[in-house]
Amino acid sequence: MMGSAQTDKGKVITMAGKLAGSRPLVIVVDDDLAVRSSLQFSLEMEGFAVHTYADGRELLDGSNVAESSCLVIDHHLPGMTGLETLAKLRQRRVLVPAILITTHPGTATVELAKRIEVSIVEKPLLDNTLIEQIRAALDKRLKSHCAPFELRGRDAVSRYRVSFFKTLISSDDHCFR
Question: What is the pTM for the complete model shown?
Answer without folding.
Answer: 0.69
